[in-house]
User: What shape does this take?
Amino acid sequence: MSIFLKEIKKPLLVTLTLLLICGLAYPMLLTGASQVFFPKQANGSLVTVDGNAVGSELVGQDFTDTRFMKCRPSAVNYNTYTQEDKDNGDYTGIASGSKNYATTNPELSNRVQDDISEFLKSNPSVKAEDIPTDLLTASGSGLDPHISPESAAIQISALAEATGLSQDRLKEIVKENTKGKVLGIFGEETVNVLMVNLQIAKDLNLVK
Amino acid sequence: MLQIILILVTFIALIIPMGKYLYHIAVDQHTFADPVFNRIDNVVYRICGIEKKEMNWKQYAIAMLVTNVIMVLVGYLILRIQALPILNPNGIGGMEPSLSFNTIISFMTNTNLQHYSGESGLSYLSQMMVIIFMMFASAATGFSVAMAFVRGLAGKTKSMGNFYVDLIRITTRVLLPLSLLIGLVLVSQGVPQNLSANVTVQTIAGKYQDIAMGPIAALESIKHIGTNGGGFLGANSSAPFENPNVITNIIEMLSMMLLPGSCVIAFGHMVRNRKKETKKGKEKRVLIGSEAKPIFAVMLIILIMGVIVCFAAEQAGNPILKQIGLNQSMGNMEGKEVRFGIAQSALFTTVTTAFTTGSINNMHDTLTPLGGVVPLMNMMLNVVFGGKGVGLMNMILYVILTVFICGLMVGRTPEYLSKKIEGKEMKLTALGIIIHPLLILAFSALAIAVPAGLAGISNPGYHGLTQVIYEYASSAANNGSGFEGLGDNTYFWNITTGLVMFFGRYLSIIIQLAIAGSLMMKQPVSESIGTLKTDTRTFGISLFMVILIIAALTFFPAMVLGPISEHLTLWN
Assistant: This one.
């Protein structure tokens, strides 16, 4: 028994030492440094209106109000819910991900088909073949805060009607919240839907 | 495409100095950072009672196994008691035994297959003291073993080194400093790093939204540096909090490519024949050692082929959606993020499976059939750079096989690095090569033969088979990505994938150490005119062909039944 104990003493001590260094000291040190140097980012890049957080700049939200721009479909509904959803079990808690439909899965084409007809109904001036594909396909995370500039442009005329804002003003808002490619090369152009809608809400005096 | 090329060029520029640094650590040479790290290491050695005793391959393998077993036990215990209110602001409950078994094997073997979802499955204590700890420990284990393996091949010493010393040196000198630095950069870009509970906000549309919090950046940086791949959140690196923009996407890709790439460079330095190259009086500056060149070239070519196929397949879009009227000029965007688009997603997919990390920035289940072949093939080959250290070791098995086949063709005794390859090494090599396909195919066959396995499949048709094969390929290659539609948190899937991960990792490592140990003890033979040179272009081509032939012989039937049939139906 004593030989056995002697044999495992070293690996046991190595395990405990690394556990404390890598599993405790390292994340604590990084937490401290992040809170000092980048407090906003380290706490989720929250967007506040009137001192209250209304969302995160990095996380999309589900918008059903016709006065707001729409995000992409989400398998987890962006973790957005009403009290009713929570009470009747439609919202089961925080999650992320997608439905993982294969390209050949009929559920995917059914969902897209339903979404096309619904979109055309609320955007009567749009033709089906002009809908950009990102707008009606679900993101991997279910939390994608962005849509492509084309997907934003196509919603403008319906938004103008619902909000009473001019198309030019809406285009300006979209442009303010569009980010280009990094160095003109890396990534894609993106429009942040939450920030667009926040500006629309401000223009409509829904929030201060 | 330009962005992809630029990233690959940056990769090569980074691994050359990093490979040199790893080499200095592996052979215990002086580095610029010694004054600081020597002091830290010595404290750790003293606490743990480590004397720098040299080990033979058996002692090394046993030390590695015993340490890993103890880590598994400690980690399992923490998972089971995580419901305690220590660092658990979201009130997460304990983890069920079969899921805990799967999770702990998964993280110890550097696989990071996840049958839980981070937001609802783990407390912050578990995220830190199990997941983050294991990410360091498993990466350091893989790299230590690879260093010992190459020491054996190089044959410059008569010992494989000391496992504990290797484990600690690699952690303190490479993994910790890099993780801190990259972690801080990730935070600056928006990855959260705090210990607060999840936040509930009231949106401007009058609804509620839950937003995840936690020490995400600390996990995120080591997740890629250690080629681990398990996400803090369920959606892994596709989630905006793990990977908020294209800059973090590039950082994450480069950090998972850095160390496996550098391992090949370090290998080149370690086995370099000094006498030959200093003939002209002064030492040449060596970027990539000559023995590493064919290996590096083969790895890079397969990687580039994969990127091209994946990009082209995803850019082509989904013909079924086009048929029902959704424009596909943007490519197959289901399961992808707008900020990454097709190019950054296809590159990430190829890189994460080639370097066996297994993090994902788009859902692999939603890839087009041919786009999905690329990650699947990378994991089946398991030699395209591969995870920390072990990819190189797998590649060496193929090198030995190639040397053997070429030796037979020219009628010479096969030699590698001046050591004769004989019956014992060849038997072990064959075993090492066959284990991987055997695990994947046998367990896939089992899963589709029993109802408990079939129950997991979520997509109909050929794709269902691909889901099963992908899960086991990912487990055996210790990758950890998944066709995540698979309903895999069941007894059947937890236990079978747990076993595959375990054997895929440790059997291979032990066989490889045995080969290196056996070669190390042999007398070097002097080079003659009949010696097959292993640093030539011809050898590189032979190696490439051998890999392709073995892969085709083992996996082609499964590929035809799964993704290729699906592709043909999709485009018909």
